Every structure is written in structure tokens, then in C-alpha cells.
Amino acid sequence: MTQYTYAISIEKENGKYFAHSEALPGLYGLGDSLEEARTSMLPGIRFYILQCMKDGKAVPTARTIYSETVTISID
User: Fold this and answer.
1) What kind of fold does domain 1-75 have according to CATH?
2) Contact 37/13 with Cβ under 8 angstroms?
3) What dihedral do alpha carbons 19, 21, 22, 24 form, nearest 10°?
4) Which of 34, 47, 60, 64 is most buried, by CB atoms within 10 Å?
């Protein structure tokens, strides 16, 4: 069994959580909570990988190796 690891980002807009991954363009998740948005990505990621394999395309590798939220103050 091969395991694939991808960083996902989750943003909040209009009370909904929106998930996406830089490595998997066009794949998005949505939920009423962080967990729902994250979980909604999993079937899509699986399908994306399987479709790449079926089409003979390279499975994308994770590009993000580190992510952090920063805060700045501006007067």
C-alpha cells in the first residue's frame, strides 16, 4: 500500500470552511466546521490519485513542506 501526504489549507468565508491543496489544483472541500472541510477533501484526493494512475499521469507530490500563520501589526 502506498501512502500519499498532502498539505491542505482551510479558510473561513461567510460562515463556511473552504479547503484546498496547492498540490491538487481544482480539488476543493467545504464544510460547516474545520473537520467537515478536511474530511470532505479525502474522497476527492483518493479519486484524484486513482484518476492520475488510470490516465498514466504522474501522481502529484506534496509541494508544501512547512506552513505557518503569522501576524503583523501596522500602525
Assistant:
1) Double Stranded RNA Binding Domain (3.30.160)
2) no
3) -130
4) 60
Per-residue pLDDT for 65 more than 90?
Answer: no
- Mean pLDDT in residue range 30-56: 96
3-state secondary structure the chain: CCCCCCCCEEEEECCEEEEECCCCCCCEEEECCHHHHHHHHHHHHHHHHHHHHHHCCCCCCCCCCCCCCCCCCCC
User: In this structure, are residues 29 and 18 in contact, taking their beta carbons and an 8 Å threshold?
Assistant: yes
pLDDT category of residue 35 using cuts at 50, 70 and 90: very high
Write the single-letter amino acid at 34.
L
Query: What is the band of 64 on the pLDDT scale with cuts at 50, 70, 90?
Result: confident
